[in-house]
Amino acid sequence: MKKRPIIIDTDPGIDDAIAIAIALFSEELEVKLISTVAGNVSLDKVTNNALKLLAFWGRPVPVAMGADRPLLAAPLDAGDIHGSSGMDGYDFPDPDRSNLLGEHAVNAMYRVLKESGEKITLVPIAPLTNIALLLRMYPDAKEKIEEIVLMGGSLTRGNKGVMSEFNITCDPEAARIVFESGIPVVMAPLDVGWKALVHPEDSVRIKDMGRTGEMIYALLRKYRGGGLKTGLRMYDSCAIAYLLKPELFEVEETYVAVETTGSLTAGTTVADLKGYLKQPPNTKVCTDINTGMFKDWLLSALKRCD
Ligand code: BDR
Ligand code: CA
User: Fold this and answer.
1) Whose CA is nearest to atom 2 of ligand 1?
2) Model confidence band, residue 30 (pLDDT cutoffs 50, 70, 90)
3) Where are the beta strands (DSSP E) in the chain?
4) pLDDT band at 59 (very low <50, low <70, confident <90, very high)
5) Which atom of ligand 1 is nearest to the CA of 13?
6) In whole angstroms, what is the distance from residue 23 CA to residue 30 CA?
7) CB of 178 within 8 A of CB of 130?
């Protein structure tokens, strides 16, 4: 089967680790590059985590380190959600540094895009700093980007600010560059992430899915994106789910702006679903998710990981 080429831009991150697992073991996706960016924890830690995951699976996917801080905003982190390492809970093998490229993520992304005979989909599941830098440093990269399918933003309330989601709040200016780029953007916001849940009985099934299942179960026990009792939120897997099973989502095409200056609202995605701003649509927004189908999809996707 012809695989769809993607680049995952990530800050692992427990829910990132699960999304990466599903993408790497999917028969429909080819992960050409994993680029890392400071977000959930520092750049060194998230890069180490990406390398640890690849060592765990013995997969030679190239990894490139990107931005160690946002463009303008003061750095934030989410160590309270993912643990101080960013992926607390499992005793991983040492990271395999042979997967680490010597070039900066922005240069690596550009090279991979230019060398590819076909367009590539970017899948950012982290602050958008690397993607914004790519678009500013190499404007012709656009021609080789199929679409940008990202986890980030919110249609309602936030998880970092009152109205703002973590990935966008970390680097609002970068997010603005991405949404204003003219490249087709798909946004999987908090509103679907909040419904993409793993419950205790699911985590027990995951634990019995072999070594990857055991590893993910150990991470889930430490992850505080929700609580294991009420359901853990698989935010980043929503972006992968959209790639592999878009029928899980209700999608509306609309104009999305990013608030960068509001003293209370910086990092808010303003999704103009009612058309007040009279702007042409720039984003396909996932407005709802079929929770039962998502759960079935997630569990069967994880079962394929080993
Ligand atoms: C996003 O923030 C991070 O903590 C998660 O990994 C996800 O990408 C959810 O707001
Ligand atoms: Ca993430």
Assistant:
1) 166
2) very high
3) 4-10, 29-36, 63-65, 120-124, 145-151, 185-188, 197-198, 226-227, 231-233, 249-254, 256-258, 269-271, 283-289
4) very high
5) 6
6) 8
7) no
Contact (CB, 8 A) for 254 and 295: no
| CA 146 from centre of chain | 17
Q: What is the dihedral of CA 283, 268, 123, 56, to 10 degrees?
A: -160
Nearest-atom index, ligand 1, CA of 125:
8
- Closest by CA to 239, choosing from 148, 111, 154, is 148
Separation CA 8–CA 264 (nearest Å): 30
**Confidence class of residue 1 from pLDDT cuts 50, 70 and 90?**
confident
- Half-sphere CA count of 66, side-chain side, radius 13 A: 35
pLDDT in tens, 215-231: 999 999 999 876 777 89
Give the pLDDT score at 244. Answer: 98
Give the least confident one: 4-13, 159-168, 219-228, 264-273.
219-228
With a cut of 80, say whether residue 251 has pLDDT above it.
yes
Find the distance separating the first CA and the last CA of the chain, reported in whole Å. 20
Between CA 227 and CA 224 the distance in angstroms is 6
Evaluate: CB of 16 within 6 angstroms of ligand 1.
yes
9 lines ligand 1 (CB under 6 A): no
In angstroms, the CA 295 to CA 306 distance is 19
Instruction: State the ligand closest to the CA atom of 10.
Output: 2
